[in-house]
Amino acid sequence: MPIIDIHPPKTALMPDDGEDTLKRSDRDCITVPFSGDSGPGTLSKRVGITLETVVFKRVDGLELGADIYYPALARGALLIHGGSHFLLTRREVPMKHVKTLLKRGFLPVSVDFRLCPELPLAAGGVPDVIDALSWVRKTLPHIQRARPDVQLDGTQVMVRGVSPEPHQPLVFANPTFPYIKYYTSDYRKFLEQQLTNIPLFPQAAGWSSGGQLAMIMGFLAAEKGIKPPEVIVSFYGMCDLESAWWRTPLQINWAMPYSEDDLLAGVEDKPTAGVSPERVAGVVRNPIADNPRGRFAIHVFLKAQMVPILVNGLPTRAKARDLRRAGDETDYMAMPEPPVEAVRAISPYAQMLVGHYHIPTFFAHGDNDKEVPVDQSRDASAALRASNIETGCTVARGAGHSFDFRPEEDPLHTGWAAAQEAYDWAQRFIDTE
């Protein structure tokens, strides 16, 4: 059995970044207050950067929020957080990337979406990020914001990636476990400038599970009548869900034993759009022992259950008992492979092979990634190249998963250079405007 070397975090999942509106201890199941659709949102600051929180969608009794980080002279950047599809919130966007985007002249907008396993990916996260793209294009430029001096042009939506064409929407999604150190340079000078007539380019890029969502949005948005992202950047994204990798159980030496009842304890009664591991004195507790929700991110590797859970979701403990009484014999610890059509519907690589994916896409991946193999990006880029779709791929030598956030995953210090290469690659198309 392959052994995956994923260590419990030595530091906080998202270390304290200073001037945050929320206390970290309040984020086990997080609810961030914000305004309704009719008025401006609430202004706050993170690391000296002004952000405004508004609502972009109401569904299942949830208000899905969007955090707008205000720069000077910006194009929009749509940020999609990661967390293996099971964890984190719109506030778990790494500020290192937010700051980089601000410096490069983007307006970062970080959004929530409904998580798995309460809903299958196709019923929660996928429609939500597509609606977020539509909202950024059509609604955001016209709503009453707390910063009325920032004027946005919704006809110019950019999703970050590779393309010789202008007006390329760029979608960013965050890594599964962004253990990062923040650099707290002062960006107030950006915010003090008068911002007028800013073209809106929501960048679409994806990290890990977020990379998968960004690419799914790329090929499904048009089916919903929404202009898809013109360009996508995928950082170590999940591309090929039919790969044998997802069907191979991995040994995680530090994982503690757990039962089916333990597993289902993390499933909420209703869909949720924001879950973060509890923080105690700045340190994340063991995700198996102390956080039922965090167990999903381990279970999908330990038992090779990523694809079945993304396609089917999981029931609550009470629902599972009801199903058993009704004769259902499903083993939720080891669900069978879903129908291939359902898998391909959320597999970007499958769509590339059959010619349904037309979005220029750039891939950045580490060649020592033990969570999402580098071949996921290499093969996807090759498939696009074979179809004459604009693409590029850079491999960070010696780097593991989340190499652009976790120093221990970048021992040769090649990771951030790869990230900057992706930014530079997309920037050249933006700067033609």
Q: Could you characterize the architecture of this molecule?
A:
A hairpin with a 2-residue loop joins strand 2 and strand 3. The protein starts with 41 loop residues before the first strand and ends with a helix. The relative contact order is 0.16. The strands form three sheets. The chain has a ten-stranded mixed sheet, with helices on both faces. The chain has a two-stranded parallel ribbon with strand order 6-8. It is globular and about 60 Å long. Helix 2 (125-138) packs across helix 4. Mean pLDDT is 76; it is low at 2-39, 153-201 and 279-283. The protein is an alpha/beta fold. The chain has twelve helices and 14 strands. It has a domain at 24-241 and 347-430: Alpha/Beta hydrolase fold, catalytic domain (Rossmann fold, 3-Layer(aba) Sandwich).
Rounded to an integer in angstroms, the radius of gyration calculated over CA atoms is: 20 Å
Q: What about the largest sheet?
A: 10 strands, mixed
CATH architecture of the domain at 24-241 and 347-430: 3-Layer(aba) Sandwich
Uncertain residue segments: 2-39, 153-201, 279-283
- SSE order in H/E notation? EEEEHEHEEHEEHEHEEHHHHHEHEH
List the quaternary state of the chains.
Answer: single chain
Q: Examine the coordinates and then state which fold CATH places here, giving the name of the CATH topology of the domain at 24-241 and 347-430.
A: Rossmann fold
Task: Report strand order across the widest sheet.
Answer: 1-2-3-5-4-7-9-10-13-14
Strand content: 15-25%
Q: According to CATH, what is the class of the domain at 24-241 and 347-430?
A: Alpha Beta
The strand count comes to: 14
Which structural class fits the helix and strand makeup?
alpha/beta
Helical coverage, percent range = 10-25%
